[in-house]
Amino acid sequence: MTDVASQGPTPGDDRPVLTNRQGHKVYDNQNQRTVGARGPATLENYQFLEKISHFDRERIPERVVHARGVTAYGYFESYGQWGNEPIGRYTRAKLFQERGKRTDVAVRFSTVIGGRDSSEAARDPRGFAVKFYTEDGNWDLVGNNLGVFFIRDAIKFPDVIHALKPDPVSHEQKPARIFDFMSQTPESMHMLVNLFSPRGIPADYRHMQGFGVNTYKWVNSEGKTVLVKYHWMPRQGVRSMTEEDAAAVQAQDLGHATKDLYEAIRRGDHPEWELLVQMMDDHEHPELDFDPLDDTKTWPEQDFPPKRVGRLVLDRTVGNYFAENEQVAFGTGVLVDGLDFSDDKMLVGRTFSYSDTQRYRVGPNYLQLPVNRAKNATVHTNQRDGLMTYEQDPHGGDPEVNYEPSITGGLHEAQYPTSDDEGPEIRGRVTRKRIPRTNDYLQAGQRYRLMEDWERDDLVKNFVTLISQADRAVQERMVWHFLLVENDLGLRVGEGLGIGPRDVAHLEPLAGQSLTDEDRERLANLG
Ligand code: HEM
To answer: Is 82 exposed, middle or buried (0-12, 13-18, 19+ CB in 10 A)?
Structure first.
């Protein structure tokens, strides 16, 4: 027998030669070094040990949420104005100032609850995360497709995710756990009415909307602030799937939405979204029946008309899934001058959570990776070293002066474009309190009434199928909530579960729950 593996390249084969990471040529990639052809392996076999130990480390932890996703690149083009009004009147953020100005973007679409290889046809909110590589550094707008969220205080995030994820004992997905949590969380009703309707399974990523969900601020060149909400509208239209459609899709392919996006980009059918912004004066708005900092609420379009500010086009797929999709890192703290946070209690918590998880998931120098770098801005920082440091001396000044202030060299602070006292003055005691205007049912009911008949039928069917798997006490509480959302919804889900209004009339409001006069009136009519 001849030893084919060690014969080397055949004459005329001009493909590059395989090496290890040290640049050593690999002469035999088929056989380990052993004592004799059948003898024990040797420990100094550097080439083999390097190969296998690097392979052993190929995976990083998947995202704790939004593990399954797809990234694409493109550009954002600003309209510069709406009507005759320049956007610059409200924000000094450079990317919005001129009509036609383009900014490079990376966008990652995702599902939330499933693991890295789970189905893209799952009933689940979808992530819509956009990284704008602006000349003032990166801006991340990390949103979803449903416009609202389950909770309004970040302290509840680990609980809502634990309830939605599989059971920690058996790893089974259990609707009983989900509705146990939701039945005790009245602010989730608006999200649930969306999620369990057909909108909870978008047909794919190209045919879904995106929303910033949380309330942010814009700051203009005089330091004046307004509250804003962001919306992405797909030029392709919005399409959703019923449970049956989704079952058929995922029976064939767990990754249909990635495929759909990449195939469209490859054939030159570049998907496009328009960015719209709703605006409000920056104060508490006591005249509204909701709190502008509450992410379980939308802002009525007739009162706060969305203004078109630009368009997003995706025209390029990634060159490497791991480097650009697994390692890309978005966060709500990543804002540029002219954009700011609001005091939305979710936004504050999110802003800590993203970079915290990314330092763990990707590593402390995740911002040095090509996909995450502020590639269109100049980065000069005194941050030093750490695991996997790549850029040792990113600032061009005196590399020895890696501190500030200094009179001998190094970097100096920038001057604020305007005063740093921005927005209204806030006063209050340190406390732990719910926001006063919770109004958990009104908008959920409005959403239900806006649905088409087939959407309502689908919603009721989905609720009945899943809530019937929960304990009786949970079922009753959910019917109680739905009767407060909209009588028709409560009656129909109740009918499916064999629970009438009288069966739930004895239930008291939850501890600490505040009800509106209209809620109380509905409750009084139950018996
Ligand atoms: C991903 C935390 C609420 C949208 C993540 C990740 C964490 C997280 C830890 C994983 C990030 C990574 O590993 O890179 C939180 C917390 C929240 C919250 C603590 C509430 C307090 C929301 C809300 C939205 C949202 C309300 C939608 C508006 C996203 C998206 C991603 C994500 C789109 C995926 C980003 C990507 O594609 O890499 N979130 N999240 N999250 N979250 Fe949140």
So the answer is: middle
Q: What does the DSSP 8-state code read for residue 34? A: B
* Nearby residues of 236 by Cβ (< 8 Å), 6 or more positions away: 206, 207, 271, 272
Q: Strand, helix or coil at 335? A: coil
**pLDDT tens string 132-181:** 999 999 999 999 999 999 999 999 999 999 999 999 999 999 999 999 99
Hey, which of 60, 109, 116, 142 would you mutate to test ligand 1's pocket, going by the most ligand atoms within 8 Å of its Cβ?
Answer: 142
In this prediction the ipTM stands at 0.97
Active-site option among 24, 45, 66, 84: 66
Cα separations in angstroms, 483 against 198, 276, 475, 501:
21, 34, 12, 8
Phi first, then psi, for residue 281 (nearest 5°) are -55, 150
Express as a percent the part of the chain with pLDDT over 90.
89
- Is the pTM higher than 0.90? The answer reads yes
Q: How far apart are CA 373 and CA 179, in angstroms?
A: 41
Distances from the Cα of 172 to the Cα of 178, 441, 447, 467, 504, angstroms? 12, 31, 31, 16, 30
Helix (H), strand (E) at residue 137: strand 137-144
Is residue 125 classed as helix, strand or coil in its secondary structure? coil
SS3 per residue for 155-205: HHHHHHHHHHCCCCCCCCCCHHHHHHHHHCCHHHHHHHHHHCCHHHCECCC
**HEC per residue, 238-265:** CCECCHHHHHHHHHHCCCHHHHHHHHHH
- 144: annotated active-site residue: yes
Which pLDDT belongs to residue 149?
Answer: 98
For residue 380, indicate whether it is catalytic.
Answer: no
